[in-house]
Amino acid sequence: MAGENMPESSTYGVSADRGSLRIKRLLSEDGSLWITIDDNECHYLKVLCDEVFGRANYVGSAVWQKKYGAKSDSKYLSESHDYVLAYANSKERMTVHRLARTAEQDSRYKNPDNDPRGPWTSGDLLRNEARDYAIYEIVGPSGRKHWPPEGTSWRFTKEKFAELVADNRIWFGTKGDNVPRLKRFLDEVADSVPATTWWEHKDVGHNDEAKKEIRSLFESNLFDTPKPERLLKRIIELSSLPGDIVLDSFAGSGTTGAVAHKMGRRWIMVELGEHCHTHIIPRLKKVIDGEDQGGISKAVNWKGGGGFRYYRLAPSLIVNDRWGNPVINPEYNAAQLAEALAKLEGFNYAPSETHWWQHGHSSERDFIYVTTQNLSAEQLQALADEVGPERSLLVCCAAFHGITAAKAAERWPNLTLKKIPKMVLARCEWGHDDYSLNVANLPMAEIEKAEPAAPGNGARKTKSRKAAPVNAGQVGLFGENEQ
């Protein structure tokens, strides 16, 4: 599942089109995209998304009541809602999950006749079409006669209606003279209900609630339109299950990640602004430590746990020179280049202290060597001799001369030659629709053991800095419990 809070911009059409296309490539086969958007841009966005996803994959739109009162200074209409657009990668494979019944919904069930089957509510017995077999007279307990209005008919045949009366499933009112209605018992209805397209602020929050949540976490508030946690909870529970991955490419204040974490989802957030450090990371630390008890925390019984990893986007590996030719970015030094290419080729970057040509490995006998030099046949021969027949080496170099690639493969079966930057261009986004970059993680840090306090010294207790216990529903993005 992917979520977007589309920014307003003069380049909105271009950014939305490109953003939706890139998000679609990232979605799983049963994945979906959910976008909050205001009334000014909603309809333009739908046309763009129809083009990217196809109209057949349009799931629907919900109206979110973001304000609960009218603005007295509005010149025309007082704006009080935003839209939530939903698109599926493949609508046939996507599932929109149902919502748990609420106490308010259950409170609509009463038991005025003390039926032993418990609380019930009543439903209409009329059908909005005339069917001859279902047009007949009904006589109530008071003797009052009932016929379906013209153009309608009863929902049941006369025989079926008699069975329902015998089973005490027809309600004529306390005096027995009301139009008959069908009793529906609480214990016979499903535990869940489908979501409607009207999302009231009392159910999913509003703008003021979102601002209060931010102010409770931070002294300063840099966000004019944050989203309430309850709104994100609604979207996430409709579109995903515990353990699924939630992506937000406009992280903002980090609400999506915080809510996804509390709900036992794995998550990825992307943010270019400095509030990644001023808001998102501090907020997530409070979530993990169990210090954030606002938002949906009490509703999901959040006590803390889990963890996250922070990655900084590196400079582009390939840039164009002054003639427009693709070259390696000069910002990369030798070590950075070797590490980047090792990741691209699926190797673990681990430079050897004893073998100058071992910059990384994929197994005990398979290695990678990266150089910006032009290698001659003599240099390649010396390299092949040192590698030996029991090992294999991927050589990434600017060029090689004195021998063709085909001849090199025959002459040195333990070497595989690839040219830079050609090999990099073949792995870039504009060359493929897949995202096959292997993200290498830092090693897991060991949890420090707390030292036992000296007995009877009356020392003040200090809070442990180690992470809170991992919540049972929270797993790591990369398959392990993060610390």
Summarize the structure in words.
25% of the residues lie in helices and 19% in strands. It has 483 residues and is of the alpha/beta class. It has 3 domains: 189 residues, Rossmann fold (3-Layer(aba) Sandwich), CATH 3.40.50; 87 residues, no CATH class; 108 residues, 3-Layer(aba) Sandwich (Trna Endonuclease, Chain: A, domain 1), CATH 3.40.1350. A hairpin with a 5-residue loop joins β17 and β18. α1 packs across α2 and α8 packs parallel to α9. The relative contact order is 0.08. It is an enzyme of class 2 (transferase). InterPro entries: DNA_methylase_N4/N6 (IPR002941), N4/N6-MTase_EcoPI_Mod-like (IPR002295), SAM-dependent_MTases_sf (IPR029063).
Features:
disordered C terminus, elongated, Rossmann fold, 3 domains, Trna Endonuclease, Chain: A, domain 1, five-stranded mixed sheet, 483 residues, alpha/beta, seven-stranded mixed sheet, 25 strands, 13 helices
